[in-house]
Amino acid sequence: MLRDILLKAASAGLRGKPWFLGLCLLTAGGMLTPAQAENDTAMTETLGPQQTLDIRIGRWDPVNEVFTSWDTIAGSYLISATGTVSLPLIGSVQATGLTPDELGTELSRRIQDRIGLSTDVQAIVTITEFAPIYVLGDVRAPGAYLHVPGMTVLQALSLSGGVNRASSALVRGERNALNAFGNYRVMELDKMRRLARLARLEAEEAGTGIDVPPELASSPLGAELIEQERKIMMSQQSAFASNLAQIEELEALLLERIARLQQQADLRQRQLNLLNEELENASSLVERGLSIATRESNLQRAVADQQVRLLEVETARLSAEQRLSETRRDRLDLTNQRDRERVQGLQDERTAIAELRVKMETEAALFAEAERTGNGLVELSALVSLTLQITRTGPDGPVTFVVGRNDPIAGGDVLEVVLARPGPNDTIPVRRLSPETTETLPPGKLPSATQTQPTTGLPPS
Question: What is the pTM of this model?
Answer without folding.
Answer: 0.41
